[in-house]
Amino acid sequence: MIVVSVMLALYLGWPLAFGGPNRVVETPAEARGVGATVAPQPGLSVAAALASALETVRAAKPETCYKRYRREVNLCDGASGAACRLGAADHWDMCEATGFWPK
Prior knowledge:
This protein has helices spanning about 1-20, 30, 45-60, 65-75, 80-100. Helix 4 (about 65-75) runs antiparallel to helix 5. The chain has about 100 residues and is an all-alpha fold.
């Protein structure tokens, strides 16, 4: 823990002590001047784009992690049933964390 604290202090303090006028990190005031804009699509209004995106999401509603877990557990049987259920529980946990069922 002490080593990590010293390394963090060196990492953050080095530019302050030995840095020149060339700063790597922008100040918040400088960052506000930089803006990102989205280029408009020709012939497509914002309302139409949102409506089409919403329809796509509704149409392709994926199976929830719990439903997939229950389906996988129902397929487990026999001598390797406990290992299969444990693997399905691991996959369920990964799915809840990442949003995708592992292969």
